[in-house]
Amino acid sequence: MTSEAPADLLGEHLQVLAEAAATGRRPGRAALDRYREAGGRAARLGVPLRSLVDAALAAAEGLAGDAVLPTLRRAVSALMEGYERAQLVAFREEEAARREFVDDLLLGRAERLAERAEHFGLRLAESYVVAVAGGLDEDGDQDRIERDLIARFGSHNVLVAVRDGRLVCVVPATLPAAVGEFTHHVRARFAPGWRVGIGRPQRGPGGVVASYREAVGALDLADRLGLRPDVVKAADLLVFPVLLRDRVAMEDLVTSVLSPLLHTRGGHEPLLETLEAVFASHGNHAAAARRLGLSTRAITYRLERVRRLTGFSPEDPTQRFTLETAVLGARLLDWPWP
Predict the structure, then answer these.
(1) Is residue 25 domain-shared with residue 75, that is, in the same domain?
(2) Where is the PucR C-terminal helix-turn-helix domain (predicted)?
(3) Which terminus, N or C, of the chain has the lesser number of Cβ atoms within 10 Å?
(4) Residues 135, 176 within the same domain
(5) Into how many domains does the chain fold?
(6) Domain that holds residue 181
(7) Is 273 exposed, middle or buried (0-12, 13-18, 19+ CB in 10 A)?
(8) Whether pLDDT at 194 is above 80
(9) Where would I find the beta strands (DSSP E) of 150-243?
(10) Which of 16-25, 39-48, 106-115, 193-202 has the lowest mean pLDDT?
(11) CB-based burial of residue 211 (10 Å sphere; 0-12 exposed, 13-18 middle, 19+ buried)?
């Protein structure tokens, strides 16, 4: 960055000030436009605004006249206006380039990806973790989250963007605290209903795509399974893609085990909810009752109905595993089917 203003940026400035001192004439529209152009050129050259203003003020030293100060004020104001306008244009161009880069990165479009990543401070040969926040209301301050993360971890370590209505955060795997900080800011700035999915650390440009897809997949699984946690990690949900890999076998299991529940009085849903609560409570009937707002006796009664209808008991370890897998499959596959 240039530390001093090049002399040619203020080429006519001395002449304008001298004319004001001699005749009292202040700069017209054309002169002020030239000052604005000079301010914009200074911004594009990387000249600090302070250096530009100091140079403009220094040129007025020793000049007397009632019109010098008003002329100087107008000149400096026009310089600053041109400078700020150029900075705003540059910021918008950078923002658009950043959005385009994030889209290309998360979609795996590899054209000049590594070169463009370096511009944003990312070293794609390293491992990265992607966190995705979904279920966000429109009142949250997404830009503030990015500014706060960058202020703490640096722009070369954090990339935040909005994609498909979700807030995406890409950070090096060596900075796990950044994911926690991202979650903290989401919690602080958005109304309840949000959830953060976290992908596993993955290496390289393709790794960013993989971690992003895992994070989105974790959000989808959490919604389909009705999971309670606000933060879900793909690493904790690896069993579910395995369960879904053989869809035909899973559908057969769900149908074979749970179909008898469809014909019971009151429908299948209360019984499925009871099974889910019992499994989530590690078989503790009292804890499951508290989850559902029921009595322990009601839980016991419902589990006995499940046993009579399906032939599977949640109290038997092997049968409990079969029941739990069938219930998970039912949620994953939106059972019952038409």
Answers:
(1) yes
(2) 271-327
(3) C
(4) yes
(5) 3
(6) 114-237
(7) middle
(8) yes
(9) 159-163, 166-172, 195-198, 202-203, 231-233
(10) 106-115
(11) buried
